């Protein structure tokens, strides 16, 4: 069973037919087409928060906003902020103070750091409006403890958390038994390269404790396929 308390956590990723999230230079590539990006936008709009790891923040500088004006309006009509809370798992507070999450769209931002994050970097981030820094590192390991983070995010009122990568954060959350559902769009290209990030990097699972999934659905979208999986955390 998944350890509680935690939000419902869904990882959404797009990967090439050979399982890569981006190129060996860690350059973002459009794997999804228009229809899949629109599905992702709807998923963002239905979530309380969207999270990326610092690797993705530094390589892609994502804005993590809801793109459709109609969906933003629907959120505000329901009494929510236009955008879900935008969260970065960032052990050493390396998120640039002028990152697009601070410049584009309104709504709250949370940077999750470890106890050893440099205080001058933390203070600089806190100068951005609507920004909170949360320390999730109970034993002072210098790395965000993802289970503690989930607990603290639940306390912040986040019930549904959508994670948009990258490879290291995906694996960390899966290994901690925190992920409830995975949505993977497989696009019609090969990226290749042994150093190109895959859906789950990190240290990986061993033969006798592979993480098992249950297929919820499959759907052809444009020239790719969307797979929805439930994670069996028991
Ligand atoms: N195709 C897609 O759907 C998609 C989505 C997101 C990112 N990407 C790609 O993924 C790549 C980035 O992936 P990545 O693996 O370099 O970075 P990442 O985004 O997974 O961030 C990894 C970092 O998160 C931080 N983190 C903090 N605590 C952690 C913990 N306990 N466990 C794991 N991580 C923790 C660490 O500092 C770690 O280095 C980029 O190339 C990006 O373009 C692709
Ligand atoms: N669904 C999806 N399909 C892709 O083909 C692709 N490359 C990503 N990549 C995810 C990554 O985190 C991106 O950086 C954010 O999707 C950018 O988000 P913004 O548009 O800036 O809000 N995601």
Give a structural overview.
The chain is α/β, with parallel strands linked by helices and 234 residues long. The chain has a single domain, classed as 3-Layer(aba) Sandwich (Dihydrofolate Reductase, subunit A). 25% of the residues lie in helices and 24% in strands. It has a 9-stranded mixed beta sheet. A hairpin with a 2-residue loop joins strand 8 and strand 9. The chain starts with 7 loop residues before the first strand and ends with a strand. It binds nicotinamide-adenine-dinucleotide and ligand HJL. The site of nicotinamide-adenine-dinucleotide has 28 residues, from strand 1, strand 2, helix 2 and helix 7.
Task: Looking at this protein, list some descriptive labels.
9-stranded mixed sheet; binds nicotinamide-adenine-dinucleotide; 234 residues; alpha/beta; Dihydrofolate Reductase, subunit A; binds the ligand Nc1nc(=O)c(N)c(NC[C@H](O)[C@H](O)[C@H](O)COP(=O)(O)O)[nH]1; 7 helices; globular
Chain-wise SSE layout:
Layout: E1 8-15, H1 34-45, E2 49-53, H2 54-60, H3 69-77, E3 85-89, H4 100-103, E4 109-113, H5 119-126, E5 131-135, H6 146-155, E6 160-163, H7 167-175, E7 181-186, E8 212-221, E9 224-232
Parallel strand pairs: 1-6, 1-7, 2-3, 2-6, 3-4, 4-5
Antiparallel strand pairs: 7-9, 8-9
Bound molecules: nicotinamide-adenine-dinucleotide and the ligand Nc1nc(=O)c(N)c(NC[C@H](O)[C@H](O)[C@H](O)COP(=O)(O)O)[nH]1.
The site of nicotinamide-adenine-dinucleotide has 28 residues, from strand 1, strand 2, helix 2 and helix 7.
Quickly describe the structure.
Keywords: NADP, Oxidoreductase, Riboflavin biosynthesis. With 234 residues, the protein is an alpha/beta fold.
């Amino acid at each position: 069973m998944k350890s509680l308390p935690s939000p419902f956590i869904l990882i959404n990723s797009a990967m090439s037919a050979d399982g890569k999230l981006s190129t060996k230079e860690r350059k973002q590539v459009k794997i999804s087409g228009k229809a899949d990006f629109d599905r992702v936008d709807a998923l963002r709009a239905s979530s309380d928060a969207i999270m990326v790891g610092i690797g993705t923040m530094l390589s892609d500088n994502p804005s993590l906003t809801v793109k459709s004006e109609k969906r933003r309006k629907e959120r505000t009509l329901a009494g929510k902020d236009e955008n879900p809370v935008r969260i970065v798992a960032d052990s050493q507070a390396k998120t640039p103070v002028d990152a697009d999450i601070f410049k584009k769209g309104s709504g709250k931002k949370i940077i999750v750091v470890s106890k050893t994050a440099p205080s001058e970097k933390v203070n600089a981030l806190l100068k951005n409006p609507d920004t909170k820094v949360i320390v999730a590192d109970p034993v002072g390991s210098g790395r965000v403890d993802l289970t503690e983070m989930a607990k603290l995010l639940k306390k912040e009122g986040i019930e549904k958390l959508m994670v948009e990568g990258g490879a290291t954060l995906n694996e960390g959350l899966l290994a901690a038994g925190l992920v409830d559902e995975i949505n993977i769009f497989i696009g019609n290209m090969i990226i290749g390269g042994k150093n190109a990030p895959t859906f789950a990097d990190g240290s990986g699972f061993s033969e006798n404790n592979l993480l098992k999934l249950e297929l919820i659905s499959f759907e052809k979208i444009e020239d790719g396929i969307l797979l929805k999986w439930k994670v069996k955390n028991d």
